[in-house]
């Protein structure tokens, strides 16, 4: 049907002159293109094509030839530089009609190899057999084989996916069973952990309570220790203050004692000077007494030497005697008044010295007692020996003994002066009575 339709259409176009016009137009276009220098330059300088491009051109030409697109094939052949030979026409087994031309087997193998299909492979063999057995162009057989292979690949992939899904399902079932078992184990373990957690929480609470109690006890102990430390610090501060005060008082007492010692030394010097003066006065009094004795001896001698003849001159002698006695009386009276004054002065000095010495001794006793009390207090804290007190007491005793000796010497001297003054008075009265 197609051949008859094609021949009828071709004859109709030929009668109308359409085919001739098309051919003339094509030839004119070909001539014009060939005359153009740029096109000729481009065709002459065209780079060589690849093997795949020639194979593609061959497949298209074979497709056009198989479908009797001669005009299109002629145009395509003018663009393609290479043409190939086809096999001779062979008769089919069913009818005696001529079959269309096909490519040689080596061209088919070369085409498949360039396209990346092995002719010895199952895919290549199927393509070659399909091309040889059926009246189909090589391009369609290749596309058909590719489609079939794609379908097979899809089926294989689907089978693989189904197998994978089945295996995954089985695995998921197994995993689910394992998960259920693990979940049951985990629930049991969780219950155990919860029980252990409760036990641990109870133990921790009990331990926390015990630790809190211990912390409170420790805190109370720390507070007690802190109070004791504060008390000890206060005692240390008080002790240091007392020690400073004791040292200051000791220094002040030492200074006072030094001052008192200086005063006592000065008073001792004054008393020694007074004693020296009293000794000098005593010596002068003894000289005066010796002079009186000499005068008395002279008077006795005079009385013995005066003869009885001089009794007549008693008046004159009595006058002279009364004069001499009066002069002697005046002298003795003056000396006695002077001695009394000195005696009173010495008594006042002695009383003053005694009062001062008593005051000093009382102060020394008070100071020694204070020192003893302070040293006793210091010894309670330090446990020091009471050596300083004994030295101070001995010094005070020695000082008091020295002052008492001085007072006793002064008293003895005053007594002697009083006795000598009494003796002088008695001697004077005796002399007056004897003279009368």
UniProtKB/TrEMBL annotation:
InterPro entries hit by this protein: LisH
Keywords: Coiled coil
Domain of life according to the entry: Eukaryota
Coiled coil: 176-210, 278-312, 350-427
Protein name, entry field: LisH domain-containing protein
Species: Trichogramma kaykai
